[in-house]
Amino acid sequence: MPADVGTIRRHNLALVLGCLHRRGGLARTELAEATGLVHASITTLVGDLVARGLVRERKDHPTSGPPPGRGRPRTIIEIVPQRCVVLAVQIGLESVTATLSDLDGTSHWSTETRHGARYGDPEPVAAAVAAALARAQQFAREASGVLAHCVVAMAGPVDSASGVVVAAIDFGWDHVPLLALVSERAGVECAMTLVNDGSTAALAEYRALCTERGRSGSGAAAPGDREAPPRATMPRVMVYAKADTGVGGGIVIDGQIFGGENGLAGEVGHVSVDHAGRACHCGSLGCLATYVGPDALAADAGLGALAEAEGVSAAMARLLCQARAGESRTVAVLEAAAEMLGSGLLSVSDVVNAGHLVLGGYFADLSDWLLPGVTRVFNRRPVALHLPPVPVTLGRLGRRAVLDGALILGFERVLADPTLVPLR
Ligand SMILES: [Zn+2]
Q1: Span from the CA of 356 to the centroid of ligand 1 (angstroms)
Q2: What fold characterizes domain 83-200+404-420?
Q3: What is the whole-number distance in angstroms between the Cα of residue 107 and the centre of ligand 1?
Q4: For a 10 Å CB count at each end of the chain, is N or C smaller?
Q5: Centre of ligand 1 from the C-alpha of residue 45, in Å
Q6: What residues have CB less than 8 Å from 285, skipping those under 6 apart?
Q7: pTM of the full predicted structure?
């Protein structure tokens, strides 16, 4: 079926806006060259983007080229970053973290609210998200901008299409319609998306890898150039695994989050590493999370009571101290965990034929003890396949990865359809 005029126009607007976003300000002739569109179309499309407040014109007086007096100033088209803002929200066991950013990646504010939700009660979490949303809306109004999207990253499997948290075991939530609860309270109109936090972190880490390789690779990208590196230098499939409240992860294929049939792909914590093993909250046996999750590591290292009394983060801080001090039980626990982690993640990696594995969260914090074991397991496998081993590296973004990925997702939607920002 042929695409209708509206679809083609949205596509072309996206082409122009995306080009300016990646490359910075450009003259109309440069835009035509870069997008392959004719000059007349560029003029119309730029006019539309100006009317939406997304781009503006600027006179650029050349400092090089023809002698002064002969060179006319060029008209450069550039993005107005603050016209469009996106709110990224991360839901944790104890707090809701939010950050508001514009198209340039400038953060306008960040906040962390302790929600105080009891096990099984999503209401205080929804209220904290709604409060962040209202604040973001107010900021956008005062700055003559548009809050284009709110992306909520949840620690647990979600159904993005319906905005429902399918099962967050640590929270005691079962099929919670989180986005509907937030909308009821917020009283603001804003497009919202619910995603798994492992997926957003995976996407952000993939982009960080792109940036790193773009800069250090074949010299294809100069500093400040936001062009992606050549595809050949990037893995087509990346698996990401992290531990924080539990064990999560995500899969990125060709630069996009792979959600699977129901958006539940990448739940690496529930890959079974022993079918007659430890009982997991999910109802299965021998799940990876029951051996390498923070609760499990704390309990195995004799820190279960501390985790119970002061929380998992306190227990993990103690565990890290004990490991650094070379305490034998802790080191033995971590070495055994590394084998389990390597074995579980190798299964995931094999199934999707991964080209790169990235470890984040506590897995990265404990990398001195975990990474050698995981790498050893990964290096065993390809001998028979005559393939180089899948590289295993640590995340580059630390705990920022979840929110960074949520922002990327939010802006991707605007860059794919600039008509989400209304005419002024
Ligand atoms: Zn499980």
Answers
A1: 24
A2: Nucleotidyltransferase; domain 5 (3.30.420)
A3: 36
A4: N
A5: 51
A6: 272, 274, 275, 276, 277, 278, 279
A7: 0.90
